Amino acid sequence: MKIPWAVPYIDETELAEVTEAVRTNWLSMGKRVRALEEELADYLGLRHAILVSNGTVALDLALKVVGVGAGDEVIVPAMTYVATLNAVLYQGATPVFADIELETFNIDPQDIERKITPRTRAIMCIDYGGNPASHSELRDIARRHQLVLVQDAAQSLGGVYQGTRLGRQGDISTTSFHAAKTITTIEGGAVFTDDDGVAERLRILRNQGEDPKHKYWHVELGYNARMTDLHAAIGLVQWRKRDAIWARRAEIAEAYRSRLADLESTRLPVTRNSCGGHAAHREPCCRNGWFFFPILVPNRDHVAEILSVHGVETRICYPVPVYEQPFFRTRPEANGRYSCPNAVAVTSQVINLPMFHQMTTEQVDYVCQALREALAEV
After folding, report:
1. Residue 62's closest CA among 44, 74, 45, 77?
2. SS3 of residue 198 by DSSP
């Protein structure tokens, strides 16, 4: 059996919407982009969702509009995708790496407190794999130190924190709609904000710095960061499938958890539930969005090789703390003074098992059996 790590849930409905977009003869940013922006903003209960060409661009623009610049420091998680780091570097700012919690694999608020200096301008957080970070603590730290909280919600949509949908916890938040994400536009991203002025500037920046009221009148240095209506056409159909997609992924995650519960050599991240009350009488106030299914295993690389032999494709998200990425280690910002032992431990053991909407129970069983066999060999 061959089981891929991820497969986009694309069918005839996306094709029909794209075909209709082509027939209208309006392929660049237009009414479908606006429609998807409205649906995203409504879902999160925010005033604005600004669609852009990808999630990395969304992060770059978000940091620009909140005023991060040269000489500033931005605290980021030591375990994250490289785009989180890159967005800080694009501003000429200095990334400062905070360790992660061993329980949730998310940024550790206590270590953030230790890393704040007079130069700190912002905190960036992620929800690792869709697992909510400790947002109330992060918000409290940001307010006390007068810092901007930027939520990189590339993995977050579908999750919930203290009864609030993930993606709206930051002063400004972003997401990604890459092909591997739970909801995809193939390539694409968005920035979320309640601030009308910030939203206006984001729309100017994404469109070559052009004044929206005056064609070819450019009021600042901007970017070609527009999403096309073709991508938004796919996104509109995907977005209307979201409940089914997220529900199925939660079912797959629960199937994994139940089948692997007796494995003493493995460990899963914990989704914190901090709303109080008796769990039997309420919906969970914190819910994982299940972008991927991570598990810690001994001798991880060997386990991955054995799974590959069995036809099971995996990912390692992420193989090293982000400050150990080769390109960064040669930069002047990399002073080598990082102490993030939890990130070192988790990145050396984490492996991400297959998860996609069309995955069958038979495939879950096969992956679990292959994992047991791999663990028996290491």
Report:
1. 74
2. helix
Q: Given strand 189-193, what is the order of strands in its sheet?
A: 48-52, 189-193, 172-176, 148-152, 120-126, 73-77, 94-98
Final residue in a domain of this structure, among 240, 265, 285? 240
Query: Could you give the CA distance from residue 260 to residue 369 in angstroms, rounded to a whole number?
Result: 9
Nearest to 62 by CA among 206, 215, 183: 206
pTM: 0.95
Closest CA relative to residue 129, chosen from 100, 161, 104, 95: 104
Which residues face 350 on adjacent strands?
Answer: 296
How far the first Cα of the chain sits from its last, in Å, is 22
Q: How far apart are alpha carbons 237 and 293 in whole angstroms?
A: 25
pLDDT in tens, 64-86: 999 999 999 999 999 999 999 99
Residue 7: inside a domain, yes or no? no
Q: What is the pLDDT of residues 197-222, one digit of tens each?
A: 999 999 999 999 999 899 999 999 99
**What is the residue range of 225's domain?**
12-240
Size (the chain), residues = 378
Which tokens sit at 349?
Answer: 């053991």
